[in-house]
Amino acid sequence: MSTASPSTTSTFLLSEWIRRAIDEVDLSALANSSVTSNHPSQWPANVRNSMALCSEDYLISALRVARCLADQISEAEDNVAGRENNSDSDDEAPSLLPAPGINWADKVQVHLTSDGAANLNNDVNSKLLFSIEKADFLPDDMSYKGQSEDGMRRIYSLGLVFYEIFSGGERPDETEQPKGGGEESYADDTEAISQELSQETSEHNVDPLPPFDDGDGDSFDVANIFDDDDVIEDEYNLCNDILGDDFFNAENPRKRQTQSCHYKVYDVSVEPLKAKFLPGPLCDLVANMIDCADGNPSGDDSYHKMSEVRDDLQLMLDKPAIYLYDQDMGRAELQFGDRMFGRNAELSTIKDAYRRSASDGSEFVIISAASGYGKSLLAHEFGKHVLAGGGIFLSGKFDQLQQGKPFSALAFALDVYCGILLQGSGPSSKVAEIASKLRSSLGNEAYHLTKLIPNLASILKGPEILAINLNEDCGNAQKRLQYLLCQLLQAISSTFSAPVTLFLDDLQWADQASMEAVLQLLINLGPSSQDYKCFFFLGCCREGELDEGHPLWKLLCNADTLSIEFTNIKLDMMDEQTINTMVSETLCLSPRITRSLSSIINHKTNGSPLFVSRLMISLGKEGLLRPSLSRRRWEWDKDKIECREMPDDVAMFLKKSIRELPEAVQLSLCTMSCFGASVDVTLIQTLERAMRKTFTGGLDIAVAKGLLDKIGAQYRFSHDRIQEATYNMMRDQHRRLLHFTYGLSLASLFVEEGNDDILFIATNQLNHGGPSTIEDPSQSFTIADLNMRAGKKAMEMSDFKLASSYFDNGISFLQINHWTEHYNLSLEMFEMAAKCALTNGDHTRVKLLYQEVVSEAHLFEDTLEITYTNIRALYSASCLEEALTKLLYVLNKLGVTLSGSGDLNTLLPETKTMLAEYSDEQLLGLPAMIDRTKLMTMKFLSIAQLCLFHTNPKSQPKATLQLVQYSLQHGVSDLTSVGFVFYGSYLACLGEIPAGYRYVKIAIKLAENRNARDCMGDVLAVGGQVMGYVEPLPSINDVMIRGHEYSLKTGNISSASMSLAGSMVCEYWSGKQLSVVKSTMDDTLRRMSAQCVVPLLMQFLPFYRSALAMIGKVDDVPMVFGSRADVETEEERKMTETNLHLLKATHFNKMYVGFMFRRYDEVKQLADAHDAIAALPFSAILISHCFHMFYWGLISFWVARKTMDVIWYDRGKEAVQKMRSYANFSSWNFLNKSLLLQAEEYFYLKEFESAKRCYDDAISFAKDYRFVHEEALACELAGYFLVERGERNSSLPYFLRAQRKYREWGASAKEESLNTYIEEWFGEITEGEDVLERPRRATTDLDLRKRRVS
Residue ranges of the Orc1-like AAA ATPase domain (predicted)? Predict the structure, then answer.
């Protein structure tokens, strides 16, 4: 029976579907791989059928059919049970089931999908018959209401169906009926059983039963007993009692009867199925179903209900490799792969965070749990999800005993990925693209990364690696590396258009430098960043091993401060059901079979996944859990396992397991454990060569025992707890001695081969041993020198925390008389240790090191380096007066005097006179300064500028002028360019803008010529401020961005922040759309906050709030030091009292906002205090100063008109003159401002016609130069002018245009404020044609020549 239609389901009887499906199996692939070359059509029929039955196409389709049937019966049985348990269900339609019997296969139909129905008659082998939609029983045969106690018999009946399905349409020989048999004959059954009973009783010398009298006078013999269904079961049991339990259970083909349902039951063998080479688990499934023939399970593996059959079939479909196909039972060891159990909810949580990180903001996830709970396994399972989605997954692992290598986990993750790229797993063009992007964005700075990531050098294929300058600012070097790492990941992400996920394991051993790098990655590669692609961080950490000083704890605190979302996932122990799943999949047996074993294991291990796996391996070794070759499955001794004694803790269990190993294996494991959780094979071979011992043999045995894994060229402990258990087996002093021995052996090889990796490992081993293990005092110098070398290498890799530990360890190995016997080593060691301590913020350590050097140094010059470090520490700690005192003392001894009054008036003319003798070309060609003491003098003068800037701004130019003169006298250094740019800024501040601009350009060119990378950021940050008085603001913004990039490349965060703040000033005062400006400002604040650039951040906040005031109320405001950036804190107010620059910034921005919103009383009060604040000394010019002057002039004329006080007019007049001079240098930036101030002056003087012309021209030039905000302001002020003149109707177009331009700028709050004014004066207005769009008049008596200084 079949029907076929392109749009309907095609249906076949089961026997027809089996025949067609077997014919449709494509065996050509098997023919190609077999020993015979014959085509499958030439194979014997029985061979072809067997091959087809074993094919994946047929097996999976047949399993789907079987699962559908089991599911249909299981669902109906559940309904029957529910109806029996619920007395209120009488009105419900009964659940119909087929009556138990041996011919169920004739009642089954298979439905194919409609897609397959359209081409059933085609000859093309399209596998259409494998498109199973469902299978079920014919409706006419579903008439039996069913009883719950018939469940076992239904399992038996369905087992016969499965036999037929998987055998290819054959039925068991035991169930075959004579031809024309039709329905089963109950009378024939009775007669047959009666005859059999008579025969068996005579064989066993049992007398026939006498006639039975039931008390009514009627009697019957044993043959007639089978005419009564009510007593058949009793007679069945009676015969078994008399003749033995196997009377009705003898070897086939003997029949067993259960007549209450009127069907025959047969012992059926599945050996014919096995003979067809069907999978063993499938044969066992059918056998276990047939074991339910008499209504009771006859074996431990027999089924108890149909839902178990359905579940097993589903497992075979879902995981055929585990549950369907035969396993290799020849291996004697259990194998635990990387499968994850019971963590799906946690996995979904990580996936959700990953998706959010791509759109909502930076986010990261930390997985925490006790050791052995599956943290790493969960993380790597998520890694599969990332890779499947086209993402990039980088993975590294921290190690308690491998912390001697800088950025160990992070560097490993990146180096492995670069190695994969080089091996050709990706297109070579992509590798070249990454290299091109890095060279383009970073230049030669990219090569700083190659010290950390060796494989990156092969990708870049560029010039030689840059020489590392250990005398540079260590803090800058560390920030530089963080920036370079960000650029590397951004280049990788953009090249492959894929998000990057970084996974770092065992964060409890993480170093501070790595965690700081991760924080910068989250900040710089988050959705708010310009170059965002996607960066997601995932980490694993042991629970309960963090304190407030831990680097990860600091990361979490910083993330909270910076509003970076993070999710903490805590893993608990596995429940019994999950453990059963784990045991089931490991043993490749159905969960129903392993449930009892899993219960015992759960009880003994308390749900620890590691304990479960190690216990099962141990049981396998003891033979309590063993493979059965005859049954082709695992089996176990349940009672013995339950009685087995177990340690309370997995660590004790592991130690016990290790102690049972041969002594040589234990020694090899102990040796490896001294190097951490994983060791390269090459290191073991190196150690063998150095010590002339053999370790690999013992390690290979440990691999065979499952304690180690050998992956590629690396040995790894199967779990960290195994490494820890091995390591902790040794006494502390013994461990130290081993570390020291291994370190000395490897150190000798380093001296011969010069391998940096061996240097780090050897020195780390020696440091683990400690000074107490030294027996020969002469070794102290050697070990201290090794620490010195390792510390310098760590500095080259910008890991200053690690470098500091090397230097401190080196100092601890020095003997008491080291200053006498090893002076140079001691001096250099202390200098380097002080530098690293400064970078790490340990100012107390710097002071102690400084004091010892000063007391032990032979010469004053020998103290200069550490004195400079100590002064910088005092500056960083805000001990400015003490720092300045030491500076003046040192400079005085070096022959440079900064103290004294009246020196500035002498120094400036002297400097101008000296410079007058040089042309620009001659200045750029000055010889280089090479004397070390003079170079140190330049460094002291440079930091003197900073100290004087904060303590005595009037005297700051003294240090600047001395820098310039010193360079002219002794040659130039990189710091000369800094001296020239500050000199130019000072001249500009004095009003000599052309001269200041000239020296700024010389400073930039000088830095470029000398390739002064470390100074270029400072030069551009300061120089850009001066250039803003000459060149158009948009181009100055480009200079600031360039300075920001230079500073980031070199790690100069202070200069980078200054450039970024300058860029924000340029964008705001250029009239850029405020929503864009705010977004960039938000990112700037977050960066400053993360990098703790406190002084500049505090000065930037008032400006940021001015922008927010123009925009109006916004919810999206970054957090700064725990508070919203739009709220002034008490800490800021206190700093305003002592920080003059913050006071100026705060005062001006409050006055500016009050003016823009026309709050006269507030502005007047602030303006009264302005003179005193404006008079505060300032020795460098900022681009913001001109805007301060502009708005101060507007405010002064406003107050002057209100008060008619000539003092205010004089202040406004001063601003007019200043702005006019600025306009002569840059008409682009200042002409419209000068005209607007002139208009306000004419307004005060009541020269109304001149005022009107200046207002209109200010509007026109603001439009020409695209200062939309100043166009709006000029229109608004012109409107107020006309209102006060009484020309209210003429003012309306100006107000409307102002409102429109404020809207265009994005100043919603200002637009709304002006709209309120318009409605009060004019009512509701519909904006019409702009009457102000008309030709510009020739204007005023101003000099409008558009001159620029070239």
Answer: 340-528
As a whole number of angstroms, the distance between CA 698 and CA 319 comes to 37
d(C-alpha 1223, C-alpha 1073), whole Å: 25
- Nearest Cα residue to 151 out of 301, 314, 312, 293: 293
Cα–Cα distances in Å, from 631 out to 274, 320, 844?
12, 19, 73
| Sole residue written with tokens 């990189």 | 974
Contacts of residue 110, Cβ cutoff 8 Å, sequence gap at least 6: 11, 12, 13, 14, 17, 65, 132, 135
Angle, helices 993-1009/1206-1225, rounded to nearest 10 degrees: 40
Cis peptide before 253 (omega within 30 of 0): yes
Among residues 1281, 1307, 1312, the alpha carbon closest in space to that of 1294 is found at 1281
pLDDT (0 to 100) of residue 403: 66
Residue 489, both tokens: 């990941």
Tell me if 434 sits within 8 A of 495, measured CB to CB.
Answer: yes
Q: What is the pTM of this model?
A: 0.70
What pLDDT does 449 receive? Answer: 84
Tens of pLDDT, residue by residue over 77-97, are: 888 776 666 655 555 555 577
Instruction: Determine how many CB atoms are found less than 10 A away from the CB of residue 422.
Output: 15
**C-alpha span between 575 and 582 (Å, rounded):** 11
1291 touches 1276 (CB < 8 A):
no
Residue 543 contacts residue 570 (beta carbons within 8 Å): yes
Q: Count CA atoms within 13 Å of residue 93 on its CB side.
A: 4
Give me the sheet containing 565-570, strands edge to edge.
392-397, 500-505, 535-542, 363-369, 565-570
Checking if the pLDDT of 1057 tops 50, the result is yes
Average pLDDT in the 905-917 region?
92
- 585-608, pLDDT tens digit by residue? 989 999 999 999 999 888 888 888
Task: List, for residues 736-762, the tens digit of each pLDDT value.
Answer: 999 999 998 888 877 767 778 888 989
CA-based nearest residue to 1087, from 559, 553, 524, 535: 524
Q: Is the dihedral of CA 1067, 1073, 1078, 1080 positive or negative?
A: negative
Q: How do beta strands 263-266 and 255-258 pair?
A: antiparallel
* Residue 1134 contacts residue 1140 (beta carbons within 8 Å): no
Give me the helices (H) in 1246-1345, please: 1248-1264, 1268-1284, 1288-1305, 1308-1322
- Predicted local distance difference test score (pLDDT) of residue 648: 67
pLDDT per residue as tens digits for the range 1274-1305: 999 999 999 999 998 899 999 999 999 999 99
Nearest C-alpha neighbor of 1148 from the set 1201, 1108, 1199, 1187: 1187
Lookup: tokens for 416: 């492995």
**512: closest CA among 551, 475, 463, 538?**
551
φ, ψ for residue 110, nearest 5 deg: -115, 135
- Lowest model confidence (mean pLDDT) among 467-476, 493-502, 880-889, 914-923: 467-476
Other beta carbons less than 10 A from residue 1250's beta carbon: 18
502/359 Cα distance (integer angstroms): 18
Nearest to 120 by CA among 5, 15, 1: 5
Specify the amino acid at residue 333. Answer: E
* pLDDT at res. 254: 34
Tell how far CA 1059 is from the center of its chain: 29
CB atoms within 10 A of CB 822: 18
Please give the pLDDT value at position 332. 54
Average pLDDT over residues 437-454: 80
Task: Give phi and psi for 1222, each to the nearest 5.
Answer: -60, -40
**Per-residue pLDDT tens digits for 1120-1160:** 766 787 788 777 777 777 677 778 888 899 999 999 999 99
CA distances from 195 to 188, 202, 568, 1347 (A): 11, 11, 76, 129
